[in-house]
Amino acid sequence: xxxxxxxxxxxxxxxxxxxxxxxxxxxxxxxxxxxxxxxxxxxxxxxxxxxxxxxxxxxxxxxxxxxxxxxxxxxxxxxxxxx
Length: 83
Prior knowledge:
Layout: E1 2-5, H1 6-11, H2 13-21, E2 26-30, E3 33-38, H3 47-55, H4 60-72
Parallel strand pairs: 1-2
Antiparallel strand pairs: 2-3
């Protein structure tokens, strides 16, 4: 893991992304304070969460809350886009 300033990250963003793609994690600082971490993206598309929810029994209150949340949201894109 390495550290770079926000200015350095801005000036070499493509290189920063290349490093993250190779599995490296970079800490971005501003005025000596940590402000962000850039690293490899999680390869999951949510299938583990779906499987967990499908395999676990939930109490009635939770199930009602989830159903209400689903009804309140209108998705214009897939919930878990493919990589």
